[in-house]
Amino acid sequence: MSNSILDLIGNTPLVESKVLNTNPNVKLLFKMEGHNPGGSVKDRAAYNMIKSGLERGSLKPTDKLIEATSGNTGIALAMIAGIFGLDIELVMPENSTKERVQTMRAYGAKVTLTPSDIGIEGARDYAENKVEKEGFVMVNQFANDDNWKAHYMTTGPEIWRDTQGTVTHFVSAMGTTGTIMGTSTFLKEKNKDIQIVGVQPTDNSKIPGIRKWPKEYLPKIFDASKVDTVMEVSEAEAVEMAKRLAKEEGIFSGMSSGGAATVALRLAEQLESGVIVSIVCDRGDRYLSSDLFD
């Protein structure tokens, strides 16, 4: 029995593709991160960043926290901050889906919307300014080692355990890059031959949760040596695959999960044999007010 909602973070199931993958010699497994209590993979990082920060003293119970987010990290931080009794302001572009904004507010966070034309970079600049001028403390998912360490401690070990060490390829969208950094670090320690595949958008494609960062905004936690291959996916491919995942596999997820699944299936077609694990980072109900499933 779980004593706290926090005990339900992690240990998400692996589900095998039964329709989309047509290579009988390759097993494609989707890691269902929407099963976390906050609905996404970001619960892992948010919990570790806040818990570890409080334990270390780098975060204090009286701090006014602030974070720029494109959505899922904000929801996770709102939930975790609320449980710990912390004040948090979340900053996101005004074109973020209504569900995300309402969910953060339901968990008790203050939500500030910045102009959509300056994107997540503009939200990050706004948060940095409040830190410099108003004494806010940034959780800073882009530079906080507790982000990737959450996946080193949980996501990687779960994949290794649940595949009985047979995983050959790990596919993940790259946003803050915490998921791919931490999971790669663990899996490579177990077997250096496991291939780590990062997913980025093609030029001019806008896929929430997947970024090709300008150099000055590149997450400080990112280490290119931990990614064996980077494959690009278009916005149209990611949208189409999100729809196919729901319709054909019963996996209801967002566009970044569709992007990762596109690359995972591309890999499955190329390989003679293998076990691919692809992250399904959240649930599709985050996107119902957008045109994703129209």
From TrEMBL:
Protein origin, superkingdom: Bacteria
GO biological process: cysteine biosynthetic process from serine
Keyword rRNA-binding appears in the UniProt entry: no
Catalytic activity, as annotated: O-acetyl-L-serine + hydrogen sulfide = L-cysteine + acetate
UniProt keyword annotations, A-Z: Amino-acid biosynthesis, Cysteine biosynthesis, Pyridoxal phosphate, Transferase
E.C. code: 2.5.1.47
Cofactor needs: pyridoxal 5'-phosphate
Similarity remark: Belongs to the cysteine synthase/cystathionine beta-synthase family.
Name used for this protein in its record: Cysteine synthase
